[in-house]
Predict the 3D structure of the following.
Amino acid sequence: MEWFLYFLLFMIYISMLFTLCASTFRKGYTILGIIGIILPFLWIVGAFLPAKPGSRAHIEREAAAAQQIRDYSA
């Protein structure tokens, strides 16, 4: 039964790695992403913080907003 708990915790960690960690790095919080490998709750913090100006997520959000403005003004 103990192995099941370890397996479950490992799967939760892997899923957080692919979702929250990736979101943290995309938003420009590199230090939180790296330290989050040891303390995974920092990935949660980084995923909920707003994107830094110049980060990939910020640029994508601005491009989507500009496209939406062009769509509605045409």
Observations:
- The chain has four helices and no strands.
- Residues 2-26 form the longest helix (25 residues).
- The helical segments are 2-26, 30-35, 41-48, 56-73.
